[in-house]
Amino acid sequence: MSYSLCKKKQNGKYYLVLAISKGFKKGYGNQIGLGYWEDIKEKYGLSSIEDMKEIAKKVDTSLDKAVAKEEFFKLLKPTSVKTSIQNIGVDLIYKVIKELNLFSALPKSKHKSLEEVLEFFIATRIILPRSYMSQYKNKSDFINDINVKKSSIYNYLDVIFENKNSVLVNLFQKINEFTNRNNKVFHFDNTTVYFESFTREGIRKNGFSKDGKHNEDQVVIAMAVDENGIPIHYKVFPGNTADGKTMLSFVLELQSIYKIKDITIVADRGINNNTNLRFLEQKGIKYIFQKRLDTLSIGMKKFILEDKHYVFRDEMFWKEQIVESIWNKNRFNGKYRKWCVFFSPGKRL
């Protein structure tokens, strides 16, 4: 038996409590109030309630409530164990950032410490992902300390946001300079990022969550990566945007910013719809999309199930078929599509 961390709505905010489960669907008992999430998050530099759930389990359930609450916050406090160790590995990441000349595209700014602060947050988040405020409070953990007021951090983030495309283009060109990256194949996908907040503002909206957080507001992030999984470009959409509706504006922005034309888009079945296919064909953009079997025509299903014309190569059976690209009322648009069917005997259940 152990404590669970629970949250409940109180005065329009999340109130956190330690509680012991009474059993499946029987609720919780022996509750210990901890305080409002926003206050705890700010005080201890946290980014998510998930950060505290494992700590809750460590609190001894036999303790008096007041003592148990004190023990919880003692475990939560980052300075509960003092150390003089500093992370020197961050210096290697600094060298990579310098080599990429990451912020050369930024305009001359009145913020004297702009690049220093941005480099610090990028490097330290790679080593230990935490909120910006938590990184700032624990900056002495790293050899590359920064001397800046906490209130200035968000101003610096505004600068990087306003010049996002310039930074991305500069990074794109630098990686091309240092590697033999294939800039003709882009792997496209969407993900979601949720927010623990009662305030619904801007593009933060309720939608289908890929994190399983269906009660939280979120944003949708579309991203293209190269064949090594290195990001090339991203675009943020309102949280209620469906997967199939992110690609058109994303591809137009991609071509406009990076001045590239001859590309192939690789994506999963969530992006495969007639609107997207029609758009890509009109723009002369090649694509490789997965297709859901339950959406196929009777003729295509028959083609897949027939044993004829399969070829075995690289431990896979495969065959292909050229079909006309059609739109409403079976109108042929002058383009052709290639259906490729793959089957791996080794992956059968």
TrEMBL record:
Instruction: Please list the GO terms describing molecular function.
Output: DNA binding; transposase activity
Q: Where is the Transposase IS4-like domain?
A: 186-291
NCBIfam families membership: transpos_IS1634
Superkingdom of the source species: Bacteria
Q: How far does the signal peptide extend, from start to end residue?
A: none
**Which InterPro entries did the record assign?**
IS1634_transpos, Transposase_11
This chain's source organism reads Mycoplasmopsis gallinacea
One GO BP? DNA transposition
Q: Give the protein name, as stated in the record.
A: Putative transposase domain protein
Phylogenetic lineage:
Bacteria, Bacillati, Mycoplasmatota, Mycoplasmoidales, Metamycoplasmataceae
